[in-house]
Every structure is written in structure tokens, then in C-alpha cells.
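Exercise 7.
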Amino acid sequence: MSAVLAAVLGATLAGCSSTGGKRAEERAAKAAQGRAAVDTPRWTFAMVTHSGDGDAFWDIVQKGAKQAAVKDNINFLYAHDAEGNKQAQSVQAMIDQKVDGLIVTLAKPDAMKDVVAKAVKAGIPVITVNSGSAQSKDFGALTHIGQDEVIAGEAVGEQLNKRGRKKAVCVLHEQGNVGHEQRCEGVKKTFKGDVQNLYVEGTNMPGVQSSIEAKLQSDKDIDTVVTLGAPFAPTAVKAARQAGSKAEVDTFDLNADVAQDLQDGTLGFAVDQDPYLQGYEAVDLLWLYRYNRDMLGGGRPVLTGPQIVTKDDAKTLAEYAKRGTR
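Solution. The predicted structure, written as C-alpha cells, is:
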């Protein structure tokens, strides 16, 4: 008994020491790494998105999906292509592999309609994520996870009104992306000022900067630039400086750089749709459906945003953005 008591006391004291608690946490983390929390079959889920190469936003989505996959004992596959037809081809490849669940984006819905129908006909449960909430149900998906892009745009318009803005330019960096069109449409719905769309080629960042710069130089009344993705916000800031414009730059989406720029006042505000949650919940809901035929929201979209993030909020979220989960 005395030996047992000494061992317990020793372990307790170690846990209360300056390093013991930390070491215990590290051991627990290592022990949990790669271990499922359930004993359900090893199903295979695939996610196919419209992401281009090197898109940090989709890295966050994948991080959420992969962590949920570990928890749910899921073999997770991922493919992506910015071109709608090639994205559809990747979906067909997943169907041919007979995956147990499918997660897709519908940024280019016309290109995806037929192949999603094929998946549903093959008995593969489908969840749409991030883009395509309006088409999701009609295409046969179980539900959609993400923010409603029009509602998100409306939130931006309302925020611009609060900030006393009068004229904005909405920068669309991906031609044919219905979600981007919906965001700018939403801004126009609620903003009391004037909104103009500016189409740029998102894969050419110097070109993006020059286009925004030219727009600001030609119209000195523009007091706000709204970008539709976090990587484009710093570029818009540079463009405004080069153009000698005092226009405020606001952006959709959040990353570590945006969080820092919010803190130091370089950016006005950001709209966070929580990409980590989109990936995590997509996998988790598919698992729940396969295991227990559960579906949150009764098939209606499960919203992960929008959340307006200002300077006051940025400090709290910065540590999460830095680790790549916000």
C-alpha cells in the first residue's frame, strides 16, 4: 500500500510541477494521435473541391476534414481542380473507386450537376461544402455546409454602412464562381452607397494589384475595396498605397496575415466563414449519416458563417489563425 501511495503521490507532484503537466499533455497528445474514437467500419470518404494549387484556405478545410477523419476512423481522400470540367472528372474517379461518401464544392455548378447525380444514383451519400448552397438540394446532396454567400455579402454591406462608407469596389478574382457573384450581390443589397464589380485574374497577383490600382486612380471617390479572399487583401492594400488612395480594404476570409493586419489597422474588417469547421463537419456529418442516418438541420444548409472580425476580435483569433485552423 505504501508503495502504491508513493507512486500516486509522485505522479501527482509531477503533474503539478512546472514541467510535469506539460509533459503529461504531450504524452496524451501523442497517445491520441492517429487513433479513432469510434469502432465503426473503415469507410472511405472523398472530398473534391474547386481549389487551385497552393490555396491556403483549402489547406484549412483539409485540416478540419483530416482531423475529423482520424476521429471517425475514416480513410480520407482529397482532389481538387479550379476548372469545373476537371473537378467533375475527379469526382467521377472517386465514384469509380466506390467511395463510401463524397464531399464536393459547387463553385461551377453546371459542370458538376451530372456527375453529382451519378454519385447519388450509385448510392453514394453526397454533401456539398463551401459553395453551391442554392443548387445542393436540387442536385441530390444530403445537405450543404458553409456560409450563405448572399447573407455574407449582406453582412458586409451593413458593416460598410456602420463605417460610413459611400462607394465600394468588389474585387472578383475567379471568373465563373457563382459564390463570388453572390457575395458582391449581397453587398449591393444592403449597402446604401454605390458598389462596382472589378474582375481580375486571381492567378496573376501583380495583375490583380495593377487592376485595383488603376481603378482607384480613375475613381477617387472609391473609399472601400472589398476582396473576396484573404490572400488578396494585402495586394489591395499595396494597390491603394500606390494609387495614393485612402480607401479602406476589407476582406472575406481570415488567415494569420489578415489577423495581424486587422490588429495594426491595415485592414478594416474581415468576414470569417470558418473553413476548418466546413471540412470537419462535412466528414463528421457523413460519418453520422453512414452510422446512424443522422442529418443535422433536416437537410437545410448548416451555416458556418458569416462572422464579422474586427480589430477587437483579431487578437483572440490570431493564435488560431497562426496554427492554421482559422
